[in-house]
Amino acid sequence: MKVTVMKREDLGTGASARYRREEKIPGVIYGKGRETVPVLLNEREIEEVIRTLGRQAIFDIETPDGKTQQVFIKEVQKESLRDHLLHVSLQTIQAGQKITVEVPIILENTEEVKRGILDQPVYEVTIEATPSNVPTEFTLDVGELEIGDALNVSDLKSAEGVTIIDEPDTLIAQVLPPAAEEPTEPTDASEGEPGLVGDEQPGAETNL
Description:
Blueprint: E1 2-7, H1 13-21, E2 24-31, E3 34-42, H2 43-53, E4 58-62, E5 68-78, E6 85-92, E7 99-108, E8 117-119, E9 124-129, E10 138-141, E11 150-152, E12 163-164, E13 171-176
Parallel strand pairs: 1-4, 2-6, 7-10
Antiparallel strand pairs: 1-3, 2-3, 4-5, 5-6, 7-9, 8-13, 9-12, 11-13
């Protein structure tokens, strides 16, 4: 996929808001041995890239001088309420250069976990690889997990040329026991207990 970038002349909050109204997303391009350049991205093109390739997408850009450069998305800023793009940071990639990116972790066969509560504290793992070796995702099969079982980063299977940076014992998924039911509050035996007919109540007067 290829995205056309334009040089961004005006900076600042007001200019950025105006660009977004024109369906242009403010961004920057930086890389090793080059200065950071403010640019504008076509909103539809960059949204299609993210939708198709993910938040860590690797793709080509075409600069105003007609040159093509391979980049990857280093950071995306979005408006939280409406999920609109606000800013995109791109990092250039040189031939043979390894990059550090985060790759999502997908759990498979979650519906097979019948007992216990499946918990996934980590949703991404950081890797180092050349662009051609970056996986789109890692998958872990949790279908046979029982209560007390867990899967860590060490259980991920990475291809040759892919180095996982996270610690091997980092917890990814576990099956917890069901939450214990809260004990019922004991009630006072005297509350709501009906008196027996004919019984004398303490302190009551008896007519002789």
